[in-house]
Amino acid sequence: MTELYLQEDEHDLALAAELQAALLPRTCPTDCPHQAAAARNRMCRRLGGDFYDFIRLNDDQIAMVVGDVVGHGVRAALLMAQLTAFFRLRVRELTRPVELVAAINRMLIDLGDKVGVVLPCSLFYALIDAPSGICFYVNAGHPKPYLCETGDGRTHPMGSHDFLLGVEEFAPDEMCHTFVPGERMVIYTDGVMDTVNASDERFGTRRLRDLVVAHAHDSCDELADAVFDAVAGFREGGPMTDDETIVVLDRV
């Protein structure tokens, strides 16, 4: 009987992993003449808390989100699924980044109060107007994205960030950047920079920035692949300690 239960648990976990993978976009949007994008995701266990999405709002606007539910396993995966549904079912609110992020924060706090556990999550949310390149964004506890000029490779952290979601109420800070052709935004979760090798060294933001600079002339896909290959190589076959996600967005 115990063996049967273990087989059922294994089957349920495998199915849950497939369902979670199905929640993430299989491809990045290719129908926008002003943008190119690439994304990669690796979960450190079968189920994880990283997520990303691109949501077409109308002919001109697209919403982009990259998030990281703190923790791993079933709890993080359930919360990731709820957040993904939140974005896709409340399209009308996606044009108001500050209000949207505040609503997500309240939802996580309320849910945490019900179960008696803090449910923290970092989130980078951007609303992009494709024709003009104007981007309104909120960074709630997420690593600062890199802004790279693909022509000369100049790269620097983008904007500032607020508190993690799900911990306490706060007023999110909305920022704005107008992208011009030749600019690239690189968003990633902390699992990329927190990867450690056999000597307990972190991959760190310097190595990531150096890769962004080195591949400034390459395509979005080539940069995303280069980062994931470099992180895996740095790990030297050791175990993953966190989920890893990177999204690259070019203005063309």
**Percent of sequence in beta strands:** 25-35%
Helix content: 25-40%
| Count of separate DSSP helical elements | 6
Considering the protein shown, what is the CATH homologous superfamily? Answer: PPM-type phosphatase domain
Derived structural class: alpha+beta
The gyration radius over C-alpha positions equals: 18 Å
The name CATH uses for the topology is: Phosphatase 2c, domain 1
- For this entry, what is the oligomeric state of its chains? single chain
Tally of discrete structural domains: 1
Q: List low-pLDDT spans.
A: 4-8
End-to-end separation: 59 Å
**CATH top level assignment:** Alpha Beta
The main sheet comes to: 5 strands, antiparallel
Mean pLDDT: 91
* Shape by Cα distribution: globular
CATH architecture: 4-Layer Sandwich
In words, what does this structure look like?
With 252 residues, the chain is of the alpha+beta class. The chain has one domain (34-251): Phosphatase 2c, domain 1 (4-Layer Sandwich). It contains six helices and ten strands. The protein has helices at 2-23, 73-89, 97-115, 190-193, 204-214, 220-235; strands at residues 35-42, 50-56, 61-69, 121-129, 134-140, 146-149, 155-157, 175-178, 183-188, 244-251. The protein has a five-stranded antiparallel sheet. Mean pLDDT is 91; it is low at 4-8.
Please give the structural blueprint:
Elements: H1 2-23, E1 35-42, E2 50-56, E3 61-69, H2 73-89, H3 97-115, E4 121-129, E5 134-140, E6 146-149, E7 155-157, E8 175-178, E9 183-188, H4 190-193, H5 204-214, H6 220-235, E10 244-251
Antiparallel strand pairs: 1-10, 2-3, 3-4, 4-5, 5-8, 6-7, 6-9, 9-10
